[in-house]
Amino acid sequence: MEKNRVTLEKRGTFALVCVDNPPVNAISRDVRAGLITVLRQIAVDPDIAAIILYCAGRTFIAGADIAEFASMQPLAADIHELFDLIENCGRPVVAALHGTALGGGLELALVCNFRVALRSARIGLPEVRLGLLPGGGGTQRLPRLAGAKTALKIILTGVQVPADKALALGIIDEVVDGDLLEAAIAYTERVLSAGCTLRRASALSVNPDSVSADLFKQARQALAQRPNGNPAPARIITCVEAAVTQPFEQGMATEQRLFAECLRSPASAALRHRFFAEREVTKIPGLVVNLPLRPIQRVGVVGAGTMGGGIAMNFVNAGIPVVIVEASQAALDRGLSIVRKNYEATAAKGRITGEQIKQYMGRLSGSLDYADLADCDLVIEAVFEDMELKKRVCAQLSKICKPGAIIASNTSTLDVDVLAEAYGRSANVLGMHFFSPANVMRLLEVVRGAKTAPDVLATVVKLARTIGKVPVVSGMCHGFIGNRMAESYLRESERLLLEGATPQQVDAAVQSLGMPMGPFRMLDMAGVDVVAKVALEQGKNGLLPLDPCYQAVVLKLMELGRYGQKSGRGFYRYEGRTPMADPIVGKICTELASRHGIAYRDDISAQEIIERCFYPLINEAAKILEEGIAYRPGDIDVVWINGYGFPDYLGGPLFWADTLGLANIAARIDHYAVQLGNAYGYWHRAALLMRLADQGRGFSDLTADELNHAHG
Ligand code: 3HC
Ligand code: NAI
What we know:
Number of domains: 4
Shape: globular
CATH architecture of the largest domain: Alpha-Beta Complex
CATH class of the largest domain: Alpha Beta
Bound molecules: 3-hydroxybutanoyl-coenzyme A, 1,4-dihydronicotinamide adenine dinucleotide
Strand content: 5-15%
């Protein structure tokens, strides 16, 4: 049933039209219908001299309703009917903007004759991030107002432009403070008394000074240098070029045609999946909505190493004071100076000011005394990956930390429940698995222990958002969601080397899928020694498969001191930071292969590499879902996009798997089980994968009930 999302109030001769469609006033079907009804009413009311269009709640219209795009083929005609009604209503229409006027919201504002914005407002056309282009005339009206070069930049990047800047660019007409509606009314009165005409962006032509001779050629060249699977950027360039070279109506037709192409593309479906999945991750099944959260006003970090310093920066940047506790003065000094250098490097790029560095460093203190953690609301330990050491640290914290303090471990492999026991008050303990560099990477795996209290989990998930992270909750298992899947990916890529593939060949195949870096460049960057030590530690705990080739190459390289980029040699040799093929690695692999009786092959194709690296990873993800380690397939996609650089235009490994068809993947897994033998169970299909494949369903078809069943 249609909901009334639009109200009309007559104040004197002004029609005040208000859109109220929480949470972000998306211009959904109901909103479009409401606006059309109201505008038709106004059209037959001769007393109305002007119209002011504004929104209730936290923001002006933040765009089309993205959920509707699943069925919109092409863009719904009523949006154009609405825009025509506004443009031809014969009275000045003023849009009053606050919050974020984005996408279809900004396009609607551009159809209006004038735009007034609160100083805090921001505008933008972020469609490109959804694999789309602005389909409501944005590619035609913005260049006419702001020039082709500026419009191209805004539309290609999807940035949010602050109101002051939008004013300077000619996109809006006035920036105001205080009461927006009153200011918009006053502005409209001035417009009327000045006898302003009904200025229309569509009637302007693009300022020729904003179109250099090679503007579009350069834009296309820049795109060709950074190819990715997003269909929108190339089409955006064509549309903006059309705004320059074609009359408005023809430019609109070009925009419509190319918008429809984008909307139909699998990449746009994948990017829209990412949009919703990244927002769904904070919804924790079974948790009471609006559970009171614990206040986090001061944070402690134990260990000022690679991770500790970066972790501290996140909170400091968000205005939360941090104390870092170290074991030695030298380590503390080193850690704090790296943090300072990081800020200085950011300032050198003009991204922060010297004054901000002072503020940030002022919020950060160092100490050698655990007693300084007594008043912290959250303490994150980031000491060496050593269970005994971490248990000692937790036991020490239990004597010092206040009763309600949350204790988090940044461990990448160890059992959070064992640490919780060492701390004593287990309900207050969980994992916060940051990714390196911790101040940059968006992903945060929040590891719920067996006894973690619901409000502790909810507090940390909310806090993650505050510090700009994308939190994904994981249950307890070795490697959590991300590294557990990465294990099968790395295992299989190594095995390909033993069969005769080269690191370059494997990396190139994986990169052709859109990964920023193949497995061997990644291992060299992370440190071959770091990965080898984890395998050795697992071996000591009896957690490794009986496979004698398991990580044989990594272990051999570590033995030879080939630690990767940091030692100048690993799977590659490095000239500066450039990886170069190193024939020694081939010899090492040949020797290991003959020792383990693995036959050489010269027929390994890029397709086989992709299947063998990614299908076991997808299979592992299915196990992660059936064990209830992850709440939803989308959560797994979010982990791999934000933590491992999986191409977002494929939507993450599980969205991609659905597009390939699970039955196909299952068949290929069976094929490799036969080809390679399955002595160690690497190619056993997950029960969930088998079930979905048999039913002809995908991961995205799993119902909430099926998923809830898995995590109890
Ligand atoms: N359509 C549908 N739902 C939307 C939406 C949209 N355009 N924008 C936000 N939402 C939903 C989110 O899914 C979320 O729902 P949930 O609470 O159920 O999880 C809720 O609104 C709040 O969103 P955020 O958590 O992102 O809230 P923030 O305050 O952090 O951010 C925002 C607000 C900046 C508006 C951000 O939501 C955003 O960037 N939205 C998308 C804007 C966009 O891409 N607009 C273009 C759409 S395409 C278009 O307009 C095509 C046109 O050219 C024809
Ligand atoms: P690191 O070796 O760089 O730093 C550890 C720091 O802990 C050192 O500065 C050391 O002096 C300090 N320390 C040791 N014992 C201490 C004690 N008793 N009290 C106070 N400080 C003490 O290690 P890194 O890389 O920062 O790793 C820390 C944790 O983060 C580990 O658990 C690791 O598994 C995890 N992690 C590491 C990632 C990485 O890429 N480096 C990624 C994700 C998690």
